[in-house]
Structure formats: structure tokens, C-alpha cells
User: Fold these one by one.
Assistant:
Number 1:
Amino acid sequence: MRDCYTVHKLGQRDENSMMQHVITIQDFSRDEIDRILNRAAELEPVAHTGSSDALSGRILATLFYEPSTRTRLSFDVAMKRLGGDVIDLGAVETSSAVKGENLADTISVISGYADAIVLRHPKEGAARMASEFSSVPVINAGDGAGQHPTQTLLDLYTIRKEGKLNKAKIALVGDLKYGRTVHSLAHALSLYDAEIYLVSPDQLKMPDLMKDGLIESGTEIVETAEIDDVIDVVDVLYLTRIQKERFPDPSEYQAVVGSYKITKETLKDVKDNLIIMHPLPRLNEIDPEVDASRHAMYFRQSFYGVPVRMAILSMVIG
Ligand code: NCD
């Protein structure tokens, strides 16, 4: 990825150095995204079983102030496959956050221990703020209902591997209000001339500001509450979990939970080569009976988190 360092704008760059943060997907141009995806493709064999010493002697710090399975572990394995080491904050309850330490101080300290920091935090904007206090690159692993740029890169990688990235007809389904994965993904897809179908209950529509951004970029968007309106038209069906933890009122969650469920029956009229994606974890959005169908892509998609995060780490630390 050495060539990446010669590009002027790659991720959010610190004005005073060549340091590279990964905060939002808007920080990347289409060329830069393509370069990361190409690098991930080169690294995929290593992600399966191999090892490399590209990041030997380097340390990644992972700080998860919200639960995580895939993001935390795939960053961990990506760093280790590249020969590096990982330190993890562990459960927030056992960290000094409980004593009242603020995020800025934690970041100032940890950036002295590690070569990069992966941060997941319940507050939107936390990663951006952390980048201002860090002397090493900060990678946003999800900031509240904000963004999840590394998930988006692995989503794009999955769609590209299936040959559907250019001019994709894609439905983003579920919680488009609080779901950070779809916030990042919708913008990224607009760089690839996608036709985007936004499928959500009324209460969980994508925020207007985001939709306006898509429209301004010339992206065709169609909004509907009915999955049946789109299911036989699209090439990619991207389902999401309703983000229970972000609802101010539990009764509002109860009103929308279980809005969409994909079963074998729902799939009877879909395009032959439709792919079904999901950032996981799933609740009831996809019936397990769908897992064995040729459309199911979500487990492979989560594996692609490894090569894509290897590419990201080699870019920011390498
Ligand atoms: C997503 C997240 O944390 O935003 N999970 C993930 O990183 N794969 C999706 C979710 O929690 O629903």
C-alpha cells in the first residue's frame, strides 16, 4: 500500500503530518476506495490461513465502548495475520471510564502505547473527537448512529466480488434512521452510480440530510415501506437490525420490531443472482432456513472483514 501514501487525500489526514485517520466514508474518494479493495483482494489468501510480517513489531489498540463480535475480532485477526500485536481495553466496566476518565484523556494516553487505535463508541462524533487527541491514526469502528466506514468497505468488497458494484440496484432495508452501516454504505454506493431503494417503516426512514446528499450526487433513490415493492427488482438486498439500543422510548421499538422478515417463501420471485447481505448480528430479519440458499451472502460478507481490515491496517500503520 506504499502508493497510498503518495495520494493527497486518503481518509481524513492530519494537517501537520502524513497521519491517516478513518472516520467517515466521505473521507475517501472512489479511487481511494478502489485501491483499498484491490489491496484487500491481494491480502485475501493471507486472511484465510496465512501470515505475513508486514506489521511485525506494531501494536493496535482496540477500544470498544459498545458491544462487538465481528468488528473487534476481525480487527484482531487482521492485525495478527499481518504479524502485529493487539492490546484491548476490555470491558468498559473494568476500565478507568468507570472512575470518570473522559475519552480525550484515554485517547491521549493510549496513543502513546499503540501505533493505531480502533474505537467504537455510543456517541456520534466520538471518533472524530478522538482523532483530535490522538498522536496515532484513529479508525472509527462505529460511532453511535453515525457511521461505520470499515463495515462499508467490506460491504463494497462483497458486492464487488459478486460483480455488482457498478450501477447496483440495491435495497437497504430496516433501520435506516439509527443504522450506521447503511449511513456509510448509501454514500459509498452513490460513488458507483447505484440505484438505491430505501425500505423502512415510516418511523425509521433515512434522515433527510442524508437523502438530500444522495440526491445532490445524482443518485436515484426510491423510498417505500414495503419490501414486496422491491424484492424482485434488486440485485442486492441489504438487511439491517432495528437498533433497539438507540430508541429513546422502548414502546417505539416495540412498534417497529419485526417489520421485515426474509423467508424462503419471500424469495420465490427474486432475481436468480440476488445476493442477501446483513452486517450482523441478525435478530429475526432473515430466517435461518435462508442460510443454505444461493442468495445468502452474509457469512461470507463477515469473513471479508478480515482482508478488508488487513488492507486498512496496512494503509494506516504500514
Ligand atoms: C453493526 C454495527 O455495530 O453497527 N454490526 C457490525 O459491526 N457488524 C450492525 C448492528 O449492530 O446492527
Note: The pocket of N-carbamoyl-L-aspartate is lined by residues 70-71, 142, 148, 151, 180-181, 241, 279-280 (CB under 6 Å).
Number 2:
Amino acid sequence: MSDLVRLEAHGDVGLIVIDHPPVNALSAAVRAGLVACIDKLGADPALRCGVLACDGRTFVAGADIREFNNPVPPAGSTQAVTTNAVCAAIDASQKPIVAALFGTTLGGGLEVALSCHGRVIEAQGKVGLPEVKIGLLPGAGGTQRLPRLVGPLAALDMITTGRHVPASEALSLGIVGEIATDLRPAAMSAARALADAGTWPRLRDEPTPAVDRAAFDAAVTAVGKRARGAIAPVRAAEAVSWSLDAPFDDALARESEAFQALRAGPQSRALRHIFAADRAAAKAPTDEPPLPIATAGVIGGGTMGSGIAISLADSGLSVTLVEVGDDAVRAAEARVRAVYDRQLASGRLTEAGHAARLARVTFSTEMAALAQADLVIEAIIENIDAKQDVFRRLSAITRADAILASNTSYLDIDLLADVVVHPERVLGLHFFSPAHVMKLLEIVRPARLAPAVLATALALAKRIGKQPVVSGICDGFIGNRIFSTWRKQCDFALEDGALPHEIDRALESWGMAMGPYAVADLAGLDIGWAQRKRLAPTRNLAARYVPIADWIAEQGRFGQKTGAGYYLHRDGKREIDPAITALVERASAERGITRQPVPAERIQSRVLAAMANEGARILEEGVAARPSDIDVVLVHGYGFPAWRGGPMQAADEAGLDTVLATVKEMHAQSGPGWEPSKLLETLVAEKRSFASLNG
Ligand code: T1G
């Protein structure tokens, strides 16, 4: 036994308890301790049965992800005690063992529980096989045991989505036999009942329930379509199909091979990188405790303001939304109610939940209503004068310790702090539209920000289910600055010979959720147009500038909202518009370019190089704390494929020398503004990676 896993005798029940904070991950020591305790249970004549339980906040949340970057341990070492070996020890047990599930029983934790002879769960507990989310598949029999328990179709859904299944659904699927209020006693009773019955079937001996093969194959095909380049869900679906007809042990061996191949591959490396990067970005760079936030105010009830109010209310906060005039208040109320009505209609909210959330959001035309708010988020038009006026008034009305935030997507937060008493409480909380849906939250850190306020913003992000990234101040912060940079390379490709749909297709086939021109039509071309006009006075006139986007906007074509932008939009479909083709060709002609086809690979490599080079500049300027923060922004806010790990990870995978060569090529062709960053040149010279800067 080890101090991580102990065996306690409770009458005739052997209670095996794992105590490995924070989530009882199945590290090598835990796996070895489990096998030792299972053996000890079997050898003790006073014990008729066993219960597998955990101390702390959750039953086993999976294998220890940190071990996956280590080389496969040599046979015979304690590390070689795999999760499969733990399951095999339970399979070989001559005494029934019941698992006592609570918290989030995930991955290897659920697989070990599935090899047990019964499972009891707490009402708030959840189970899942989320391996695909880190580019893996269940590697300890999950793809073979779960189908035998719940049927191939339900298993395929759980394993290829990685979703968490609540206790009630786990009961109806048969994953657990009981939902208990007093967990361990209930599990002990269940174990005794199996011992009394004298029989305790093993899932591995059960036949897989029959399934309509055509329906199953159609579901497998759908997994491939949804995967959008990710290979783990496709491999996982293949593994589940083996449960239909392959002998258990043969399928188990194939599952292990498939698991190891994924674990060693670039996609799992990238997804494990994002798993760690998300957590690194969310860690407060200070020991200051967060301040309490119970009541919040939002100024501005447009799309962003109402989305922010919903995001706050969803997390239990009381929110007062302030707008100017009764009409604007009514419009804001309608926006908030419409979202909650849709969630009620779709079953995502119960009647009670719907009523509770609506009750949390109140509306006012008076800023004085925010006098006692702990936090106020301004979400009005992107105009610095208007924002400064709001912050002056907030400074006079709110408590001196109230946190004052702006949702601005690029304006200088220091200019807002300048007009506030106690400027150290002012920061940026840049939500992404729709604010109640998008996970990313850029926390913009002005020079005078108090550490406790930063810690409070990071704690708020976790509470409202957002993925925070701390950004310094620059035009566009991290995400929009990088987006506007690589978008220019796409515009150059338009002039050189490509068409909008070809560029969108090249990047979507590379894994981007949506190409830049489809995104522009969705977001509205007027926004970028206004930004370019704002920046026009400071634009470097020697730099290559493509007028295509301006020409389109000047025609009043703002994208989906006007029915036409880069594409024609009819009945919810995007159509190629010959008028845009002609406009693009005119741009090439006016620049004296003879159009040539632009290969998809060139678009992909230049977009990545542009992202990585601008990311390196952002790091040099201290706007981002580490390369992985940039990856988190692009993955959670801009549709960058998570299975490529973000631009900095993808650049490492491509080789920084290759990326630097592409940057130099772009500089030669595109002129000023495309110089290689010093950091990129230094890393290449020193044969280092961006990952080496992640700390
Ligand atoms: N291994 C190691 N550390 C883990 C971990 C894991 N599986 N899961 C979480 N942690 C750490 C995390 O890094 C953080 O550490 C702390 O726990 C709290 O996590 C064989 C091969 C469980 C839902 O994919 O989904 O089993 O930063 O901040 O928001 O087939 O963590 O404090 O030092 O996320 O409450 C499958 C991944 C693995 C689950 C809790 N399991 N984890 O969320 O806290 S592969 C997973 C989560 C596998 C088998 C295969 C979440 C959580 P630190 P947290 P949380």
C-alpha cells in the first residue's frame, strides 16, 4: 500500500481509499497502490467484498495527464503498472468490488469503475470519458466495457464527444445502479448484496447489446464529419466498433495500440498543451486574495452589454443593467429575455431556472442604481470620449472600492483610469460576442492595476465559466492585434490571385472554424472599416495596403446584416458573388499584379507565420506573459483548431526556422511592417522553441 491508497476494514467490507489531491488522478504510485490493495483485499479472509472510494473533492478524474509527456516506462517498473493492470486486478478479484462515485469521475477513473462489479453515485456526481478532448481515446478498456453496459450508440456518443453525463442520466443508461445520499454506506451495502448473491458479473464477459448496424455506421460517419480534422474522435469511434464483434482481449490490445499512437502524436501533444495553457493563463500572478463580488452593474444594454449581464446572472450574481432612456432599457430587457426564453424552450432551463435568472437582472436609466455595486462593466460604443464621461460619472457615484471595467476591444484603458479616483481599480474585461456563449475573456491590465483587483478578475472569470487571459495594453490587445495582422496576409493573397472563398476554404481545411471572410461577413464589415478609418492617420504609407475591404464597405455591403459582403447571403446560405470577383480582379489590375493561383499551403503557412511573428512581438513588448497565453486566446476566441494547440505551439511543431524563412519571404514581398521579430530570430539562432518560454 502507499499513503496515496489505503485499505480499511469495515466489518466484512474492505474499503480501498485513494487520497491523491487535487483530483485523485491515477499516477503511477496510485496505480501501484491500487493493485497492492486489491491483492490485500483478496488475501484477507475476514473481508467478503470491497468498495473503491476517494477522499477529497472527486472520485478519480482520470489518468495523470502530466505523465503523458514522459517516455513509456520500461516493463517491470512500478510506472509500468498501467490503468489496464488495475482493471485486470479487479477482473481477477474473487470478491465483488463496488465503486463509490462523486464529483467528476472521468477517463481512467470511470474505466476503473467500469471494471468494478457495481457503481453507486452521489446525486451531484458526473461521469465521462473525455479523452478525445486531449487528443486521446479511452486506453483502459473504456471503448470495450462501456458499449457492453450502455450499448454501442450511447457509448459512441459519450466517447467521441467526451461530454460529462450527470448522475440521473448515468442511472438511466445503467452506468450506475444507484444514486445515493450517503455514498460509502450505500456502496458497502451494494457490495455485501453482491457477496450474498454469490455472483458478480464482469462487464468484460457480457455480450455487447445488439445494434442496428446501419444506424451505428451512420453515427460513426457523423463523428468524422464533426471532427473537422481532429483524429482522436475518429479513432475512438473505430475502437468502439470493435466491441460489436471482436473478442474482448483482442479489442483491448488494439485499443492500447491506438491509444499509444495518439499519445505520441502531434494532436494530443497540442491538446495537452492547451489543457495546461488554459490553467496557466488562469493562475493569478499574485498571492493577493480576490475581493468579494456579489452585485454587478453593466452600462449599456446592446448586444455586448446584455450578453455580459446574462453571463454574470448565469453565475448567480445580481446584475443591474443601466441604459439611457426607457426605449433603450426596454430593448435591453427584450434582448435578455429572448436569450432566456430560448433556453427555456430548448429545455436548457427549467421554469424555475428561467424565472430565477430573469429575477437576477434589473434594469434602470439611472447610473445612481450602481452606487453599491461591487463591480461595474461598461459596454457602450467604442468612443474614448463617451467612455471617459461614463468613467468620470462612475467615479463619483460608485463606492471607492468598486471595480470599474471596460469591455472595450482595443481602446487604451489607462485613459479611463486617468479620469477615476483610485485608478488602481480600473481594468479591461474584453468579452467576445456573444458574451454569454464565447469562453474567452481578455483581462486588460493597465499600468496602475492593483494586484487584488487582477486576482478578483481572474476569480470572476472562473466563476462565470470564462477562460481568462491577461493582456497588456496595445491596439487590439492580444487577439484582435494578431487577427488584424494575419488578415492582411489574406488580403495580399486576394490581390495576388486568390478569391475570398478560396482563402476561406484553405484555412477551414487547415482546421480554422471559419475563414476570415466568412467571419468578416458574420461580424459586420462596418466594424473593421471604422477601425481602419480610425487608424488611417497613423498608417505607414510605405506599407502594402489592400483597398478591397474598403471598396466593399463603401458600397454599403456590410456582410450578413445587409445581405451582402464578401459573399451574397440568401436564406442563411453564403454564395460566391461575381461582383466581388470582379472587384478583387480590379484591385489586382490597379496594383499592376498579374493574378496567379495561390496554393492553399502558401495561405496556411503565411497565416501561421504572421500569427507567430506578431505573437513574438507581443511577447517582446510584455503584452502577453507567455507564448501559451497567445495560444489560449486564438483557440478560445478566434476558432484556431485546438488540435493544433494555437499558433505558437503550431509554429514550434512546424519548426521556427521554417516559420522565420516564411516571415522573411513575406517581408521581401510585403515590405514594411513584416520584419522578422527579434525574439523569433533569437530563438532560431539559439535553436529554442516558444515552448521554452512558457516557464
Ligand atoms: N491529471 C493531472 N492533473 C489534473 C487532471 C489530470 N487528469 N485533471 C485535473 N488536474 C489538475 C489541474 O491541472 C489543476 O492543477 C487541478 O487538477 C484542478 O483542475 C487511461 C488516458 C477534473 C473537471 O481529461 O476536466 O484518463 O493547476 O483547475 O475546473 O483512458 O480538471 O491546480 O496544479 O481543471 O474544478 C482523462 C481533465 C485523462 C480530466 C476539474 N481525464 N481534468 O476541473 O479544476 S486521460 C481528463 C478536468 C485518461 C484513460 C485516459 C478538470 C476537472 P493545478 P482544474 P476544475
Note: The chain has three domains: 5-264, 295-471, 479-693.
Number 3:
Amino acid sequence: MQRDVIIACDFKSAEDTFRFLDLFKDEERKPFLKIGMELFYAEGPSIVREIKRRGHKIFLDLKLHDIPNTVKKAMAVLSRLDVDMCNVHAAGTIEMMKAALEGLTRADGTRPLLIAVTQLTSTSEERMRSELLIDASINDTIVKYAQNTRDAGLDGVVCSPLEAGMVHEACGAGFLTVTPGVRFADGDVADQVRVTTPARAREIGSDFIVVGRPITAAEDPVAAYRRCVAEFVG
Ligand code: C5P
């Protein structure tokens, strides 16, 4: 799998999104984009179709988590939108992840990549213990959820770049790690805690880095994107 930089399009409207994307219209390399809940819920499937029409790959980050039958049917709808990557919560169990994969697979056998969220980075070990009654360490939980994801036949997980090595060790080098929490060495960390640089993420073995504000809030977003690509893809 070719390493790539995914820009998190955390915009509130289609207008803001297209104003941003217009900056890239002369770029030879069309950025791979992540669309999350805010933009998808605001604009609906039409935003996905329009961005695809402009030639971008899309990671639709909706983190599905429901009973297997509901997830299977929802995934069939997303698959028809022709996205390139989508995701579920591994906490939905192996059965739910298998159902997601089935729903996603088109009649001709093709499908978007499917990855799973292990533990959200906003969940602390303390809260896992006191609220979710999970006594294992957060790293053991991440490894177990990643193994469940692999056993269900999915392609990889979303995790911190600092966890990418651990996940590859447990699940194999071909199992994808898609990693947010990336900052330039001289950049602002903002609200992210466990961060690393694009170059370091590459060394640890991330397959895709998801980068939002270091690109979207940069004075020159195209230059920031190019810098990410140069550091991470080479
Ligand atoms: O702006 P920033 O680079 O922090 O954006 C990172 C993106 O990755 C955001 O869309 C955020 O919601 C997402 N994300 C994350 N940590 C996770 C899962 C997703 O930062 N564990």
C-alpha cells in the first residue's frame, strides 16, 4: 500500500470546503481527503459526490457502531457513494465488523478499504476502568481490538502514530495504520496530546497520516501539504 497524506476537511459547510479545495486546483497530486461527521451531516451525500467528481480520494470517517444488520445496510449505502476508505468502531465486535465488510463489498467483489477505531484517543485508561469497567491497560486493549479487526478481515485501524509499531507487530506489516495526531516539528500542537512529526510517523511505520489544522489553518495550505508529502511520502 502506497503511503499517503490524508487532509482532514473539518469544515462546517460545502462553501468553506470548496474554498479550501480550490487552492489545490493546479496541484498535480490531488490530496486524499477525510470527511467527518460534521461536514457529512451538514451537507449529506452530495458533498461526497462533488469531491469525488473533482478527482479526490475520500476517507469517510463516520465511525459506525450499531447492531450488525444495521451496520451492514448502512455500509452498502456508503459503498455506492464510491468512497475509498470508511470506518467502524472495533468495540462493535467481530460479528459487526464482518457484517460491515459484507455490506461494503460490491457485486463485482470490489470495496472501499475498511478500518476500525480501537480506543478513541480521548478515552483515558482511568475512564476505561471507572466508567467502562475495562481492567486491561489501554495498550493491551488497543492490541486486542486491532487483532479482532484483523480477524474480522478488515484492512487496518486508526491509531496514534506512536502506536503504529505496536499494531504492526501484533497484526502484521500489511495491516494498515491510519494515524492522526501529526504536527510539524516547529508547529502548534493545539489540543492534540500524543503527537509526532510526518517524518517520525514514517519511521515508526504509519501507512496514512491524517493531518488537519497544520494544513487547513496554515498561512499557505498548499505549501504545508507539500511539506507533509515530502516528509512522509518522500
Ligand atoms: O487538526 P488535526 O490535525 O488535529 O485533525 C486530526 C483529525 O483526525 C481530526 O479530524 C480528528 O477528529 C481526527 N482524529 C483524531 N484522533 C483520533 C481519531 C480521529 O485526531 N483518535
Note: Residues 8, 10, 36, 120-121, 158, 180-181, 192, 210-214 surround cytidine-5'-monophosphate (CB under 6 Å).
Number 4:
Amino acid sequence: METSLSKPEILTVAKLWPPYLESLQETFVVHDRIHTGDAASFATIAPRIRGIAASGESRIDAALLSQLPALEVISVFGVGYDGVDVAAARARNIPVTNTPDVLTDDVADLGMALLLSIARRIPQADKFVRANEWVKGPLALARKVSGARLGIVGLGRIGQAIARRAEGFGMSIAYTTRNKRPESPYTYYPSAKALAAEVDFLMVITPGGAATKGLINADVLKALGPKGYLINVARGSVVDQTALVQAMQNGVIAGAALDVFEDEPNVPLELRNHENVVLTPHMASATWETRRAMADLALGNLQAHFAGRPLLTPVPA
Ligand code: NAP
Ligand code: 8YV
């Protein structure tokens, strides 16, 4: 029988989904970074840490890595790994894994749900009925979705899944990426600004990190225009949130539907109080089915590493 002494010791650096944490605890000795935050207790366990279990929002920087001399692997519970200093990990031959594909459907579903919600004003309509406002007269008209023009910023796994869903709504689809996809049937634009000028709905689904920080800026929002809607299911950092608040306040765009924010879980009052926004708490992959699949994959990567088997889903080199 395996004893706790023979189990590898790993560190969690996020508040993990409890069933995932339980399965980690069955396999490893798990130290919780949040509860070993004080320097003395962390210094005691740090030399023994061989793996990190992170979430898509975790920050694993060079300073943390330098405190973990025995670290062998980093497993991210999420497809986005913009919080991990992959270059610093790679310099020490520490592989990083993530959970691609298993969450694609859910994130695409929520992207479309947000698009429909902001266009058809579903949360506002729900509030209207609950407040008994209906007895005073009808709700204001909304924006038609079927047949409208959709622009997708980032046509990867999730962007393509959103496009397939939008085809079912008869939408015309265009996209921007750094590399044009010759096999794609959709219209390519070389920049987010050029794309925004040609669409009714701009859906953002790129990775986060330095390369996309502020990609959706004041110029892009101006190009989207007073009848245009922004939907962000990528990372808060991809949209210049200050520019977005100003654009919303000045009627530069018609509305925004956002699952991600610059400083989660803090959402500026100007957005929370605005009538033409729909806000969700970074929940695009948060279904029972998908969380289970993400947990299995994130655990599977750690198990593969410690069993000396090939990793299931290492992040690309
Ligand atoms: P993916 O398959 O790697 O696709 C990323 C796409 O973004 C690619 O088409 C890439 O094309 C494009 N891209 C990268 N940098 C760009 C830039 N500077 N300008 C324009 N396009 C750029 O990733 P995925 O699986 O679709 O996931 C995408 C992201 O969704 C994740 O990284 C994560 O941040 C986010 N996400 C959010 C949630 C949530 O809960 N809200 C859940 C899951 C994922 P090029 O390389 O050609 O530019
Ligand atoms: C998760 C995500 O909510 O996959 C990602 O990149 O942002 C989401 O799926 C997150 O990783 C879990 O905390």
C-alpha cells in the first residue's frame, strides 16, 4: 500500500474545484499555497514540492519558481496559461500542461449565450417582468441576431466552435488572427480594428498575456461603433477596460457582454451599474460535465508525469 511518504508532494496555487482537489489528495501530498502563505511554513515545504496544480487564472512567475528547486511539472486546470512564466519553466526543463478541447463546447456555448443575451436583452427583460414593469407597457425593442454580422477575434479551437454555432443563426462570419487560416471559409481581416468596422458583434476569444494585452482598445471600440456589441470570453486583459467603460458611458458602442475582467473578482461600478451590459463571473467552462473532464485531464497530466509516461496535453513549445 502506498504511504503518504511515497506520494509526490505538490502545491496548489489556486482555490481549486473541490472534487478536483479531492482527487489530487488521493494521489499526492497536497500543500495549499494559500494556507502556507507565511514565509516560515512555505520555506519548510518548498524544497520538497515536485508539482504545481494551478488554475487558468493562477500566477506562477519566476519568483515563485525560484523558490521551488525540486519542481518537475506544472499542471493548469484550464486551457489558458497566460499566468504561467512558461519561458522560466522551460529554462529549467519543467513542462507545463493545460486542458484544451474538453472545455471548447462550453465556452462556445457561453459566448453565444452572452451574444444572444446582450442583443435580445434577456437579463434586462427578466428584471422587467420580475419588477412588474410589464403592466405599465411593453419592453423596448431589441437587436436581431439571426443574419447579423459576427467578427471573431481569435479563430482557434473555441473561436471555430463559436463560428459553427453562429452559422446555425445564419450569421455572416469574419475573423482576425495573426496568421490567416487559408482553409477557413470565413472572411479574414488583418486587425481587430479592421474587423470591428465590418461587424455588428465582436467576439473576443484569444489567449491572454502580454501579446494580446489591450488588443481591444479605444480605436477598436470606435470602429465597432454605436450599433456594435462587444462580447469577451477570453481574458480581461485583452480588452482595455478603462477604454471600454468610457466607450459605454459615451455611447461609442451599443453594449457589452463580459465573462472576464481585468481584476477578477472586482468589477468596476461603472460596468455593474450600466444598463447595456451583461456580466457573468468567469463561468464559461463552469458546468459539472466540463469541470469533471478538466479535472480528469489536469490530474491525468500529473499522474502521467510521475509515472514516467508521456504527458497528455503539454502546452505547445
Ligand atoms: P487556441 O486554440 O490556441 O486559439 C487561440 C486563437 O487566438 C488562435 O486562432 C490564435 O491565432 C489567436 N490569437 C492569438 N494571439 C492573437 C493576437 N494577438 N491577435 C489575434 N488573434 C490571436 O485557444 P482556445 O482553446 O481557442 O482558447 C482561447 C482562449 O480562451 C484561452 O487561451 C483562454 O484565455 C480563453 N478561455 C476563457 C475561458 C473562460 O472561462 N472565459 C475558458 C476557456 C478559455 P494566431 O496564433 O494565428 O494569432
Ligand atoms: C476556467 C479558463 O474557469 O480554461 C481557461 O482558460 O479560464 C477557465 O476554463 C479556469 O481555468 C478555472 O479556474
Note: The radius of gyration is 22 Å.
